[in-house]
Amino acid sequence: MPVSLEGQLVVAISSRALFDFEEENRIFEQGDDQAYMRLQLERLDQPARPGVAFSLVQKLLAFNQPGRQLVEVVMLSRNDPVSGMRIFRSAQAGGIPMQRGVFTQGRDPFCYLRPLGAHLFLSANESDVRQALAMGFPAARVLTESVQASNSHPTEVRIAFDGDAVLFSDEAERVFQSHGLDAFQQHERSKASHPLPDGPFKPLLAALHHLQQAGTAHMRIRTALVTARSAPAHERAIRTLMDWNIAVDEAMFLGGLEKGGFLREFEPDFFFDDQTGHVNSAARHVPAGHVNSGVSNPPPAA
Fold first, then answer.
1. Which of 74, 94, 295, 250 is nearest to 160 (CA)?
2. pLDDT for 249-301, tens place per residue?
3. How does DSSP assign 99-168, residue by residue?
């Protein structure tokens, strides 16, 4: 009978999101593929340092128990297969039980998200993330300069989400950007009982909710909605989550306050936001990723 990942939370991740390959990447970006490959081969027995998403992956995989696989992490990388050997060895050295990987040697890897049925794609490549989002997969560009996650909560996977254009569609954000705060507040007040349309990360939140329900006694998930909304626009966001039958553990309605300080206190293993200003602020305190979605992220000029 063929192996299936059905029923598992599937995370596809690039090598630079999982490990600190910034030194090696500088050679890769110079276009000298052979020099890059030689360097990775020379460092085959030198485990790479943890990257921005290492803590998130390590904790998610801790949900797995002998005979009960709930989470699958797959390497999806523009690296060559030779460099893939170092990646797998680094994963083993870091206590990351990774079995599967796709190495495309510079070609676009995002097309393999479909056969994987991925619930999340983390990459340092902006183009790959944009394409993955266009295909309907939750995806974020990892800010490799982000600080590492705190180790204060070893038995909790902590994930924080922005609301509009991330968990929810950018419908309300479009009103705000076109007509201002008063029009936005009036729009959301009048539609308080109407759930917001799904955003690109709703499938991930749903998968995390399912994982929590099927979870173990020694690991749990704690989620937070961290949004620039404030009352009265908070009500529509809460009612939307209620309509989805998904609860978040914390909700922060900040009314435009800088998010970084609040995230520092929540200590997530990862934070997702569509606006670069918020992501850059967050990255000074926590691991962060940019969701290239919605009205704040117009497509690049042709």
1. 250
2. 999 999 989 999 999 999 999 999 999 999 999 999 999 999 999 888 888 76
3. -EEEE-TTS--GGGHHHHT-SEEEES-HHHHHHHHHTT--EEEE-TTSPPPPSS-TTEEEEEE-TBTTTB
Rounded to two decimals, the pTM is 0.94
The CATH code belonging to domain 156-290 is 3.40.50.1000
User: What digits encode the pLDDT tens for the residues 105-131?
Assistant: 888 999 999 999 999 999 999 999 999
Given 128, 162, 164, 170, the catalytic residue: 162
- Establish whether the linkage from the previous residue to 232 is cis, with ω within 30° of 0: yes
Q: Compute CA distances 257 → 162, 281, 284, whole Å.
A: 13, 11, 16
Residue 1: pLDDT band (50, 70, 90) is: low
Both tokens of 183, joined, read: 């029009």
Beta pairing class for 71-77 and 100-103: parallel
pLDDT tens by residue, 183-214: 888 888 888 888 999 999 999 999 999 999 87
32 is catalytic: no
N-terminal to C-terminal alpha carbon distance within the chain:
47
**Taking phi first (over 0 means left), then psi (-120 to 50 degrees means alpha), and beta for anything else, what does residue 220 get?**
beta
DSSP state of 233: T
CB 74 within 8 A of CB 13: yes
The CATH superfamily assigned to 9-140 is: HAD superfamily/HAD-like (3.40.50.1000)
| CA–CA–CA angle 175, 178, 182 (5° rounding) | 60
The answer for 253, left when phi > 0, alpha when psi is -120 to 50, beta otherwise, is beta
Domain regions of the chain by residue span: 9-140, 156-290
